[in-house]
């Protein structure tokens, strides 16, 4: 017997537009979210939370290629590079959402995109590749828009559901809250049973069982 | 061919609550002897359990109860249907009319319960639509009828029906060609749910070809294994142990097995099984009394942690 894995994949924008504060906030927020993810995992002993990260800039690459159990996960800061090859990152992820290598009896995976938008490659082809995989279609998706100038349209298309909105992270506090929320609520949502319709497509009958946090854009108690 | 008044099957069943669940949302029942007069009826149901299906433990019970009633009626109809032409009509009824009747009765039960147990809300609040009410009770169901000349089973949603045939081969006749990924499943609460009911129809033209073992289980069992092979190995092991030592020993360890499965899948886990008595083997002590009582010793048992039937339910009973 085996616990059912939840594969959680971060897609992190490391392009030049993230230079400075944005990438520093991202590194801090992810590091801070790890203990919360561990707590959620411990509260759900039947689920095995496995983490991976993909960074994308001039190229896309696995920052953690092999799924890492959350208890063993450590964060090494990422640096900015050049372009914003989101499409390449989505292609990388799509290859992992096939079954195999994804086990048939897993819980829904979680795809969490953190970006300020502005992809510089054919990102829609990458998104199509994700949507074409059995697990990609079923994944719980979360998108975090960094900065008030973020291209929310790209993130909205990534979500693929008009009822969901990208989370706004216009401040370090908001980013930390959004990442914390994505790390925990999305994992819980991944194990929610959903009844399907009679067409056999298991279409969702209820709204996604999670909602983003509402935060004031208030940096008074910032950690920065 | 028909042997009336003889118990043909030994049954065993149990259910355990999933880790971190407030209550067990599965339900099951085993009833009857497997004869022409008293068909053996087995059913397991798995309430969806999420907040959107806040009354699903009751939906699971309604599903099993309504199935049992309809299956008894089906058994009476089947008693006179051994001729080829009649069997064909019975199959058409089983395939088309039975699922419609089952879904209709289940919906009536759910809506009736809603009417008797409305949540306390402000007068101005909107009355939920019919479909919204029914969704609260969402559940899966697997049910089977075993008679000397017929084995028929129905399923909607996930969970497993495993059959060890007379020659020892194992089949899963209602398994979809491709398993659902994640925790999505079809449901009795879906629109036109009767269309999603799958049926297994297996007339038994020779007694020696009757299945040895029939196992119904909720998905908490199969999802505790890393692959379908693990589940098959479990059923093969169960069949071997039952053949070796009969039901008594297995009945003792079954709760531990199910608890171990529930620990891994995280879900409520329920199994109901029927083992065919060997042709010349003596019946175990107490079997006759159980048959006379209309079911096995656990047929009226309440699944661990599940609600009492008449206990009023309110909207606040939400599992997340």
From TrEMBL, chain B:
<feature type="compositionally biased region" description="Basic and acidic residues">
    <location>
        <begin position="310"/>
        <end position="320"/>
    </location>
</feature>
<keyword id="KW-1133">Transmembrane helix</keyword>
<dbReference type="InterPro" id="IPR036457">
    <property type="entry name" value="PPM-type-like_dom_sf"/>
</dbReference>
<dbReference type="Pfam" id="PF13672">
    <property type="entry name" value="PP2C_2"/>
</dbReference>
<feature type="transmembrane region" description="Helical">
    <location>
        <begin position="134"/>
        <end position="154"/>
    </location>
</feature>
<keyword id="KW-0812">Transmembrane</keyword>
<dbReference type="InterPro" id="IPR001932">
    <property type="entry name" value="PPM-type_phosphatase-like_dom"/>
</dbReference>
<keyword id="KW-0472">Membrane</keyword>
<feature type="domain" description="PPM-type phosphatase">
    <location>
        <begin position="22"/>
        <end position="258"/>
    </location>
</feature>
<feature type="region of interest" description="Disordered">
    <location>
        <begin position="279"/>
        <end position="320"/>
    </location>
</feature>
<protein>
    <recommendedName>
        <fullName>PPM-type phosphatase domain-containing protein</fullName>
    </recommendedName>
</protein>
